Amino acid sequence: MSASKLKVTVIGSGNWGSSIARVCAQNTIKHSDVFEQEVRMWVFEEEIDGKKLTEIINEKHENVKYLPGINLGDNVVAIPDVRESVKGANILVFVLPHQFVYKVCESLRDVIPKENCTAISLIKGLDYKNNNLLIFSEEIEKILGIHCAALSGANIASEVAEEQFGETTIACRDPKDGETFFKLFHTDYFDVNVIGDWRGLQVCGALKNIVALGAGICDGLKYGNNTKSAVIRRGLVEMRKFGKTFFGDVHTETFFESCGVADLITTCAGGRNRKVAAAFIKSGKPIEEIEKEMLNGQKLQGTTTSQEVYHFLSSRNMTQDFPLMTAIYRVMYENASPESIALDLRTHHVKVE
Amino acid sequence: MSASKLKVTVIGSGNWGSSIARVCAQNTIKHSDVFEQEVRMWVFEEEIDGKKLTEIINEKHENVKYLPGINLGDNVVAIPDVRESVKGANILVFVLPHQFVYKVCESLRDVIPKENCTAISLIKGLDYKNNNLLIFSEEIEKILGIHCAALSGANIASEVAEEQFGETTIACRDPKDGETFFKLFHTDYFDVNVIGDWRGLQVCGALKNIVALGAGICDGLKYGNNTKSAVIRRGLVEMRKFGKTFFGDVHTETFFESCGVADLITTCAGGRNRKVAAAFIKSGKPIEEIEKEMLNGQKLQGTTTSQEVYHFLSSRNMTQDFPLMTAIYRVMYENASPESIALDLRTHHVKVE
């Protein structure tokens, strides 16, 4: 990156996107020697009571739809045209639902600066394509031809917006980018640790949601603490094994970071994956029906990832190497008895060397 | 150990001792080629409605005081004299409150067999002596001159007694002992993993209770998930650093076992250390008073360990290397503001290489 001040664009403006734009906007003011004050935020245009959402944000400095009651900062500027929003940007913060990533990236390819431009992905999950699981930050790198870091952690968006203390993890290839991202994201209440293992970080962010389904199955069966903590522990071990088996040099240390064990604990304690899975077990209805009832037609991250990981493993004849992930899928989608969540762990062990 | 059948004595008969005697009694029947069927259990004699507790146990096969409603098995024999209970024993299972360990061990020194005798410790915590922290299994080894393994995990005693699925970890020096202990403790519902790191296992078992106080402080302050999971994660990192700094070759893998992350999660989710710390914050009363009110005069494991670890660190000028453990102690005992639980984490970081 050059010596001139860095321009930041946040691509996405949901609950998490708005919270993180607010964090960035505080830091561009604090580090005015490094960043341009203004943080542009791409907002998918909607009408709210006859008024454009971008206009409301730019007048009230509040995302009334996705983060009501929180002042984003005067220096957050909402822009409805995504290509317009990234012109001359040096830092692109991707915080989109994953189904939009490719389309948005393709549309940006010819507008982003050819030099002095880097990205960071806050996109959840892995991309399932041709029976392969892809790392979003690497996909963004391929499309845009720039470096892309990733951020993930035990971060409930509303708590970050309320400035409750929490931690997060940033992973990137280039330590110099790491320093810049630290300045852009670290605050007193949002404690950043920078690591090198972007694959491990993103594997954790995807697979934790499957483990949370397992925790929910335990809750639905009214299992006690011993069983539930065994499921969470096995989940952590399988997450690590999955990373090391399919994504090369995933580091054990990554699982001690906020993106690893902390995010897993939070997701298995609260979180809608856990809740919906518990309701699924209690009701006996198909999971699609429960998702419809509880999530207004949205799909759970955990159920989608569970299906993808199962198909990925099963086409490689490796389901038996991941007994917990496999048991969870079979309970959710193949009418396996819910009790198999614990029964299968009695007979199948997983070891990571 | 010799080719003749192994005699097992469980030294202790509280809630956990009785549950574990029941597990052993199932396995001595199952592995009748390895073990004598009879499992002797030392019971500190008490009168229950005018009748001796040992007599009740031997008639009803139930510890009506400490594990009511659960059949221990006909082959568990309660013995009121501890020296009598270990005569000819090949396996000693220590599951006593830690304040009785030395006295009991001293009294056993001249009665236990000189050969073919090994022990396993289920004692919680570390022993604080002359401003040093000692590993109980090693203390037992010193006094008795026999090997002593250790067992610890995410094991709520009543859930084990009800045969709910759970996992545990056994650590021992000698792999042959490991095989024997696996046979004595592993069941369909009590899943044993044997490792070599007995120090790491016992460090986890002690320090998790301090972290649970931290989780309770967060709950008392009504902090959200981001803060609480940051505290638990920092706790895990400090547990590991403590082990590696003061106990030599503690293994990172140990923290992925049931005795590590799983036990930590359970203790921070339920558990009385967490509950009492939360009540302490809400009430504003001194912790000793809260302990008296809530625990009938008993002391919490976490508060005692917190004091011992703090004094241990402070005499070595190392409190700043363990900011979470230090902050918890200061909140509990030095009137530090409870908010320092998070505030101190903002400014102090801990890294394990």
Give an account of the 3D structure.
Two copies of one chain form a homodimer. Chain A has 353 residues and is α/β, with parallel strands linked by helices. Chain A has two domains: 6-196, Rossmann fold; 200-347, N-(1-d-carboxylethyl)-l-norvaline Dehydrogenase, domain 2. Helices cover 49% and strands 15% of the residues of chain A. Chain A contains 15 helices and twelve strands. In chain A, the strands form three sheets. An eight-stranded mixed beta sheet of chain A has the order 5-2-1-6-7-10-11-12, sandwiched between helices. In chain A, α4 runs parallel beside α5 (136-144) and α8 runs antiparallel to α9. The longest helix of chain A is centred in the middle third of the chain and has 23 residues, at 198-220. Chain A is globular, with a radius of gyration of 20 Å. The two termini of chain A are 40 Å apart.
Helix content of chain A: 40-55%
Work out the helix count of chain A.
Answer: 15
Strand percent estimate of chain A:
15-25%
Largest sheet: spatial strand order of chain A: 5-2-1-6-7-10-11-12
CATH level-4 homologous superfamily of the largest domain in chain A: NAD(P)-binding Rossmann-like Domain
